[in-house]
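Section 5: illustrative case.
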């Protein structure tokens, strides 16, 4: 709960000037598919690297968004998105993680009469609020082994239809999520990406 309030405070700091006329609030909801990509390197004279990626299940994402416009074209879009990222690794191994992501994107509008296209991109930071410990052979383990913070870059393209926005987005984590990333015998790097499709409603 403490982490939850810290996230809300951070989001409020980003949007402190939202009362001005050029700032409007909205709500975003959609579906996403996360992907975990790993590389495992065995150290030694015959060093070898093994790579693997696992697509997660469809998950729901939702949260408030803010559009702060500098003029009719340029704007900033911070948001606070809550999401569930679930993975099924097969052989009765599964993992669910609950995140709060805070992307801060810079965007540009292309007006086409009553309809406008837009593109935006920027950094994001994600906080893991909790997780269901992974099940291995039907039995729960104590920890997923993933760090509680993720960060990277993201981008969104979309179309505005009056108060509605239809969006397609992608986020690529740049942090190594492994807590035990390196030992005397091996090193491992795991990153997480996510593909998103959703709808915004601007108040």
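Designed sequence:
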């Amino acid at each position: 709960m403490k982490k939850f309030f810290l996230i809300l405070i951070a989001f409020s700091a980003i949007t402190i000037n939202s009362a001005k006329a050029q700032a409007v609030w909205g709500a975003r909801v959609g579906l996403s598919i996360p992907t975990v990509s790993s590389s495992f390197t065995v150290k030694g004279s015959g060093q070898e690297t093994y790579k693997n990626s696992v697509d997660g299940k469809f998950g729901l994402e939702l949260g408030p968004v803010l559009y702060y416009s500098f003029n009719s074209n340029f704007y900033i879009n911070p948001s606070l998105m809550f999401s569930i990222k679930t993975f099924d690794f097969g052989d009765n191994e599964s993992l669910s993680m609950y995140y709060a992501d805070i992307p801060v994107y810079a965007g540009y509008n292309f007006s086409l009469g009553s309809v406008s296209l837009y593109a935006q991109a920027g950094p994001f930071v994600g906080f893991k609020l909790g997780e269901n410990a992974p099940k291995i052979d039907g039995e729960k383990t104590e920890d997923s082994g993933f760090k509680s913070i993720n960060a990277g870059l993201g981008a969104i393209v979309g179309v505005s239809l009056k108060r509605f926005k239809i969006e397609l987005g992608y986020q690529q984590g740049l942090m190594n999520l492994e807590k035990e990333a390196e030992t005397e015998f091996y090193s491992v790097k795991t990153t997480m990406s996510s593909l998103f499709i959703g709808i915004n409603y601007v108040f």
